[in-house]
Each structure stands twice: as structure tokens, then as C-alpha cells.
Design goal:
Hypothetical Protein Ychn, Chain: A, 112 residues, 42% helix, five-stranded parallel β-sheet, alpha/beta
């Protein structure tokens, strides 16, 4: 078993679908995987919630979503929407979602 954290930076839905597909595939194959919404991707949280995006909901149900960057959510105007979800706001690196907590636990970092 390997450990991966996928940092999604882009706010493009199609790109993020591939984040979800990869995370779900890694999980199904027995790896430990976490997803972090960082940068522009934070704007997708309310979009996926409203659309009830099936891959997003599955990843959420399985606990694959580590959290959402608090600083980016505030800057991009979606903080209140993100707070309405049960997702964790990450702010350990000067308000942003840092890599250190994952690296310290042996996760390999993948960015999209």
C-alpha cells in the first residue's frame, strides 16, 4: 500500500474529474489517498455540492477529501459556501493548506 495526497490547484471541472477518478481508483486498489482543494479548485466545492457531482460525493463519502484551503476560499469568495459543507478547512501554512502534514506522514504528493 502506498500513500498519496493529490493537491488540486485548477478550477477546471474536467481537470478535477480526473483528480476524483484517480483518487477513487487508487483507493479501490488499496492505496491510501487524500485530496486537497487548493488554489482555484476551491471554487469547485459549491459547484459540485449544487450539482451533486457523483464522483465528488463518492470521494467525500469515503473520506478521501482531506480538506479545502481556507485562504483561497476566502480570497475567491467561496468561504461561506465551503463552511456549509462538512469539509475541513485547511490553514496550517499561513492560512493555506500546507504539504508538511502529509509529507511527515509519508504521503507522496501529486499536483493537478
Amino acid at each position: 500500500m502506498e500513500k498519496f495526497v493529490i493537491y488540486a490547484m485548477r478550477g477546471d471541472e474536467m481537470c478535477f474529474v480526473h483528480v476524483l477518478l484517480n483518487a477513487l481508483d487508487l483507493n479501490e486498489r488499496g492505496d491510501e489517498v487524500k485530496i486537497v482543494f487548493e488554489g482555484a479548485s476551491v471554487t469547485l466545492v459549491p459547484v459540485f455540492e449544487e450539482k451533486q457531482q457523483p464522483l465528488y460525493l463518492r470521494a467525500k463519502e469515503l473520506g478521501l477529501i482531506a480538506g479545502v484551503c481556507k485562504a483561497c476560499s476566502a480570497t475567491l469568495g467561496v468561504l461561506e459556501d465551503v463552511q456549509k459543507t462538512d469539509l475541513t478547512l485547511l490553514d496550517d501554512m499561513k492560512g493555506h493548506a500546507g504539504l508538511r502534514p502529509f509529507v511527515d506522514k509519508g504521503y507522496s504528493v501529486i499536483t493537478f
